[in-house]
Design a protein that fits this description.
It contains six helices and no strands. By secondary structure, the protein is mostly helical. The N and C termini lie far apart (105 Å).
Length: 139
Amino acid sequence: MADELEQPKVDETHISPIERRNSLEKHLQTRPDPKDLKDRHILLDTNAAPALQSTAQDLERQRATDSLKKGLEKRPEKEVLIERNILPDSTAAPAIQGQQKELEKHMRADSLEEKMKHRPKPEELIREGILQADEDPTK
């Protein structure tokens, strides 16, 4: 059992100073440039002294927080958004609101179609005096 827990062997061979320098030069050549590191948010994109960078970052975060709070305070209430038809007046879950809207659309179309079937003929409207004889839409 002691054989199973053996530590891996460490290569203790000495590296010559020339090999070490060549290895360092090779790593420095493939080193990413500061702009790439800033784009990947590894380095901070600031000109502030390192001792002040943390404070500057905290201030920026606080400024963003304050801006969001102000925006949320000015945000209209849900009822106002519903009245202005920005939000749907629905109690359905957001995941099925699209399907609910489609169903309502089809129900309105069916209702309109049913009402069109029971619509009075132009002759009836002329006979009842709703339309004049010269207003007959069929002519």
